[in-house]
Amino acid sequence: MGILTRRKNKKYSYEPRFYKQEEGTRPFEIKHKFDEHRSTIDAGGLKNRFNTAMSDYKQGVDAGVKKRLYIIVAVLVLVFLWLIDFDLSIFKF
Length: 93
Description:
The protein has helices at residues 45-59, 63-83. The chain is an all-alpha fold and 93 residues long.
């Protein structure tokens, strides 16, 4: 009945009447914004998506990205502590 599966979108093969298409080009193809940077946009099923996501995770990220993430998290924690008026005097050395 299709309860667990989603309906696929229809694909149309529209060609203008007087347009001569060059080999290898598709001017009406809509691409995702970050297609060059993603590897998980394939519609290969859940197992394939999980496997590509795990391979991307194992590949790692740049050191600059980690450093930037740590700085953002630290700033957000400090702003949160400042908003709730956290008393830093309990950390006396």
